[in-house]
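Write out this protein's structure.
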Amino acid sequence: MIWEILAKSRDGALILLAVEGLLLGAVPLLVLYYVTKGLRRLLPQVRPGLRRAHEGFLRAQAVVERLMEAVRAPFLWGHGVVAGLRALASRVRRILCFGR
């Protein structure tokens, strides 16, 4: 008798858990459905602003890249001069010490 009551209680609890899982799984699906519907209406209104913002970011990126080139150029020039002078010094040393 007690085992039958426990078995029925267990079955009822399993059914309740299954229903609860389905309901909890359906809530995020409904939220995503309504968010998607809202985005479909919102995107045509937001798209021009996003395009302008993207163009602004591209202009800012171009300015930053030009500034980076301006900052980097003297260092590259200095490195090239030092490398050239070292090559010249080693060449002169080789000519003076060993001949051609």
